[in-house]
Amino acid sequence: MIGFLRQARPEDLETINQLAYESEAYWSHDEALLKQFASLYKLTAATLKENITYVMTGDCGGENIVAFFCIKPEGHTANLEHFYVRRDLIGQGLGRKLWRQLIGLCWEKGFDKLEGVTFPKTLPFYLKMGASQKGSVKSKLNTGQLIPKFRFNIKNEPR
Q1: Burial of 24 (0-12, 13-18, 19+ CB in 10 A)
Q2: For 111-133, what is each residue's pLDDT tens digit?
Q3: What are the structural domains of the chain?
Q4: What is the pTM of this model?
Q5: How far apart are CA 108 and CA 128, in angstroms?
Q6: For the chain, what is the radius of gyration of the CA atoms?
Q7: What SS3 class is residue 23?
Q8: CA triplet 81, 155, 97: central angle to 5 degrees?
Q9: How open is the CA angle 97-101-104, to the nearest 5 degrees?
């Protein structure tokens, strides 16, 4: 059974950073861009202390990490910093399951909205989950490229 959610621990960092790298590679980024991504978006012990980071595991013991998310609280807004599913599990419904757990956690913590930026090829996933596109911002990886920004209104979700 996949879908056990637990808070990320420092000993998870190597696994979740590798998972993020491989998941990004799924979308056909070139090697130079992937190396830049790995450097710029690497999670650290400080990331875990300053943000809300959870892993989804495929076992009740919590060691087989299959996905994770990281949100940065800013007032009543949760900023989605990371949302990744293991590369070999993309397209099997795990992202939807992780999204529901993310939204439930945000609702419990009192956030009104979830905002984030995403690679253009992954925007359809967030739109399918009920988010709306709210413009675009300059990419930190590709100079001059604009990437979509999205927002999901949590306070409108029934509980």
Answers
A1: buried
A2: 999 999 998 889 999 999 999 99
A3: 4-156 (3.40.630.30)
A4: 0.88
A5: 22
A6: 15
A7: helix
A8: 55
A9: 140
The identity of residue 61, as a single letter, is G
Give yes or no for a contact between 112 and 154, defined as CB atoms under 8 angstroms apart.
yes
- pLDDT, tens digit, for every residue of 64-110? 899 999 999 999 999 999 999 998 998 899 999 999 999 999 999 99
Residue 157: CB partners within 8 Å, gap ≥ 6? 103, 107
10 Å CB burial of residue 60 (0-12, 13-18, 19+) is exposed
Residue 151 CA to residue 149 CA, distance in Å, equals: 7
Query: For tokens 């590369």, what's the residue?
Result: 87
Q: Pairing mode, if any, of strands 4-7 and 113-117? A: unpaired
**Residue 97 · residue 3 · CB < 8 Å:** yes
Phi/psi at 128 (5° precision): -65, -30
